[in-house]
Amino acid sequence: MIFSRKHVSVIVLLLIVFLAITWNLTLVSASSGGVMGGSFFDSDSSSSESYTTESDSEYEEDGGRGPMVFFMIFVFGVFLVGFCSNKDANGNTISVFKLQVGMSGEAGCSIQRDLTRIAQAANTSSREGVSYLLKDTIQTLDQHHGYFTAGYSSVEHKQSKEDGEKCYNQLSNEERSKFDEETLVNVNNNNMTIRRSRSYDEYAMLDSEETEKFEKEKLLSGPDNKYIVVTVLVAAKGAHKLPNINRAEDLKEVLQKLKSLISSKYLFAGEVLWTPQEEDDTLSDRQLLKDYPQLAKSMNIFLVKKHE
Fold first, then answer.
1. Between 206 and 150, whose confidence is greater?
2. What are the Low complexity biased-composition ranges (predicted)?
3. How many domains does the chain have?
4. The whole model's pTM is what?
């Protein structure tokens, strides 16, 4: 079969249109993500207290005191070991927190820009640096409380560093797997990664008039794209709880409670994840429901409480 030049031109044109549509759909569906934080389970310098009872040799010399004395010593020893074991277990408890905040991505919300600034300046190689970025993040979220649309929190208690680290890493991996691309990463100061999509660079080059036109086109083409999700993960010493979140006021209370627990003295690990990371992007209702079902459920509760 012989194709004419006209037929070839039509085929090439259709192919170009198909590739362009596919590329645009990829850009729309992809979600960028930012990650900053650090883990210090292996570098913990504190050691758990060890309790020992006196050696049996000290009692062998007094073996002639009779069975009653021996029985009393035995009972006291069992009580002492049990008491010390419970104390040691409570002292080794690790609380692993997960806080997720859903925010409106409407014009005026600068949370993405602020978190990017924090990530680029953060020293994530030390507990102090991670503690500072967590506090800075919480303060930034509190300043944007007017954009809160949903909140979700959970706490898991583990009785060893190994279990605490495993739980924390699992949560971190689950959250990071929701990103199509990590466009900014600063974790334990390991080669901070910053990538920008072509749409971001083009947007940055627009003048004020073109920017306004670009924003209007975004609103017309994607009315559902309006959410930003920020996740805070913390592993800290001690058995702690967080208040339930039913409204924006509860979320502010949780932020303050969490802020009081992230001292570098008690911090094992901390991480902040947000999506989309790029300022010209937001999540749609469908993306929120798919990747963050707890937030979607919380959003309904927020709306009910708001109208009560």
1. 150
2. 42-54
3. 2
4. 0.70
